Predict the 3D structure of the following.
Amino acid sequence: MIRLDNLGVTYQDGTVALQNISLEFTEGEFTVILGSSGAGKSTLLRCINFLTYPTSGQVISQTLGVLNHPKILRKHRQRTGMIFQQHQLIPRQTALKNVLIGRLAYHSTLRSFFPLPKKDQYIALNCLARVGLLEKALTPVNSLSGGQQQRVGIARALAQQPRFLLADEPVASLDPNTAHQVLSNLRQICQEDGIGTLVSLHQIDLALDYADRIIGLANGTIVFDGSSSDIRPEQLAKIYQVSSP
């Protein structure tokens, strides 16, 4: 579905954020990235939809090929949903209007100034229903709890009808119970729809509970890539660069 070929990112100050990252992501696989702060987790996520541009290597889509042209990149972004840690919602707008933002990529800039077609509204309402918030469709999001706001963010990403989904620390600001609810809901939907998903987390227990696959990053390089059942204390020690117990 998505392949990274020797991907690297070096910032203007000379900081190497990623080096020689080669990975492949498949349909329906729920992958979690683990690593300490500064390991490169967010940079890796942002490279896949080019919010951060790689300085070396390639991002390759199974259907679009090498992502090296603005028109191809626009189609790739249309098919790639993004969930943020801080939700990135419009506070005074309703949940429905926020979710409809996920449909804008399918319309011209001029068309986006007018109410979107009923088809788009139906898609948005269905996405809210799938995250358990249909009854909150007309509620301003600043009246919702943190967990509900994150579910609106998930619904907005789903409204794009993506084939791949990126989530950058999506439950970092939530309490443990709500974090489990959000990740469980997200994983179930992605499995049902065959959406490949890449999630960065800092909670090891959540990664072990929900990941089909765990990728460990340290200093911008891959130090572990395997199933959650294969990870051991010595691998976690390598990921977080601490002494093994």
Observations:
- The two ends are 38 Å apart (CA to CA).
